[in-house]
Amino acid sequence: MRRRLPGPSLLLAFSTLAAACGSPPASDAGSRDAGAPGSDAGLDTDAGSVDAGPPEADAGPGPLDNFRLVGMTEPSCTLRPSRCAALWPAGRVLRFESEETFEGATHPRTFYAVIPPDLTGPAPVWIQLHGGYGSFERQLTLHETARLAAGSPLDWTRNAGDCQLDPFADPAGFVDASGEPCDPEAVSARSAERAIVVYPEGVDQDGQRHWEDGRIPSPGFGTTAQNRDDLGFLDHVLRTLLDTPEVPLDAERVYLSGVSNGGNMTLRVICSVGDPRYPTLERIAAFSVVVSAMAEGSARGLEGRTACRASAPRPLPVHYIVGRGFPTPTPDVDGDGYVPWGVPGEVRRNNSPSGGWLLAVDDTLDLLRAHLEASSGAPSTERLEPLGAFATRRQIEVGGTVAQLVQITTEGGHHTALGARADFHPTGREWDFLSRYRLRDGQLSRSETSPMSGTW
């Protein structure tokens, strides 16, 4: 009897991202003791402590001026006709072309803004960073963000009773307690609120794009040097959007998220909010990080990178989705197949061709918790609750601020859309969290009402 497979969007994300990541080099299996802290401490002071405040380099001359906008066009879909019909977003698509000058080199830079067709007024802006080897069009393939933002439903299947998604089966699919194929529950979710989705792209090297997320070697370049200023590029993206009348954005509701390499980059942005060289990053109200961990280079400030700041000018809300239970990168190492879970105090190589050292997931969470506590000046409390059959939701709060730190961990969660293991819809969960926050005159507020309806 043939097993029933997950919904088309889940399988497409699984196969496309797995093919993009490729096989890791043998050297990626390394690990070493990083001297990382317990939950009440910063990183080791000998390596750039998060408790010691920003390094002297952060007191620099102010905003960098190494980007210029070259032009704006309305591109046509370059995918196959059937793919264009299925994936190309409704509404208006704007392509921005910029130029970066970095240490004598010049890089063409691009980003896209998708504006829903029935937008009637200023809308929130969701900036989404692709994973390694990603692009604007690949994001359209892997994620349903633009569909959700345009009001289209997210149709998916979730676990129902003992009919549960087994990602370890061959092929992966929904099976019952006896291992036989079964019918999961068909559910749907949608957002009552429209949003503008923005897709920046990493520097293009022969069709491969990565973010300088603080890993060493630098993703996509394979050197210890950074080779480009992606923090500056994201600052430029937001500045450009704020100055473009064709993009009717609500400047009080700007959000940033990223998956995999893009999630690592989002973590680096969180660590850089308050750096005077990138002032526009302070306009971001909330963040979401998916299947990622903090790069050691950006946490500690290695090889010319700036160490993670002890705090931000205000508390930063962060949503963090991560999986575990898959061998990473050897059978005796837990993780999601690409990002090693690790143990506190240890850094491990990312299981991808890009490699690079990552903090343990627990240390990443503790760094975010310490950053939230320092930014708000109060200790945190947390609540842990199940979220379906395999996922657990951890909610961390600090008195005196509405900013929350939420982590969703999935047992048997792979480094793809299957990381949710049919307990929740990652895009729906991200938007439910992000869309509630508003930043007005430096003051953060959170709505008690979600724009989401249905099941997510």
Give the SSE map.
Layout: H1 8-21, E1 31-33, E2 67-73, H2 81-87, E3 92-102, E4 105-115, E5 123-129, H3 136-142, H4 145-149, E6 154-158, E7 164-166, E8 173-175, E9 185-191, E10 196-200, E11 203-205, E12 208-210, H5 230-242, E13 249-259, H6 261-272, E14 286-290, H7 296-300, E15 318-324, E16 346-349, E17 357-359, H8 361-376, E18 380-387, E19 391-398, E20 404-411, H9 426-434, E21 437-440, E22 443-446, E23 452-454
Parallel strand pairs: 5-10, 5-13, 13-14, 14-15, 15-20
Antiparallel strand pairs: 1-16, 2-3, 3-4, 4-10, 6-9, 7-8, 9-23, 11-12, 16-17, 18-19, 19-20, 21-22
Describe this structure in words.
The strands form six sheets. Strands 2-3-4-10-5-13-14-15-20-19-18 form an eleven-stranded mixed beta sheet, with helices on both faces. Strands 1-16-17 form a three-stranded antiparallel beta sheet. Strands 6-9-23 form a three-stranded antiparallel beta sheet. It has a single domain (8-454), classed as Alpha/Beta hydrolase fold, catalytic domain (Rossmann fold, 3-Layer(aba) Sandwich). With 456 residues, the protein is an alpha+beta fold. Helices cover 19% and strands 29% of the residues. Strand 19 and strand 20 form a beta hairpin. Mean pLDDT is 88; it is low at 1-29 and 35-60.
